[in-house]
Amino acid sequence: MKISNIEYKNQIVSFALQAKELFDHSKEKRITDDFDKELYEEFWTEYNLLLNRNMNL
User: Fold this and answer.
1) Alpha carbon 1 to chain centroid, angstroms
2) Contact in structure between 51 and 16 (CB atoms under 8 Å)
3) Segments of the chain scoring below 50 in pLDDT
4) Which of 50, 51, 1, 54 is nearest to 21 (CA)?
5) How many CB atoms are closer than 10 A to CB 51?
6) Can you say how many angstroms the Cα of residue 21 is from the centroid of all Cα atoms in its chain?
7) Were both Cys, which of 7, 24, 25, 55 would link to 3 (CB 3.0–4.6 Å)?
8) How far apart are the first and last CA of the chain?
């Protein structure tokens, strides 16, 4: 089965939105270690940046 790059990107974006929704509706994370908290925040900053960038193409 072959799909276009646009179809592939749309499937990945759809999955990423579903994953984000799962985390958005979960309990607030209680991260006590500053290093872990920073990594967690950096992860979501990059995740949202990439998601938004790919939703706008």
Assistant:
1) 26
2) yes
3) none
4) 51
5) 16
6) 9
7) 7
8) 24
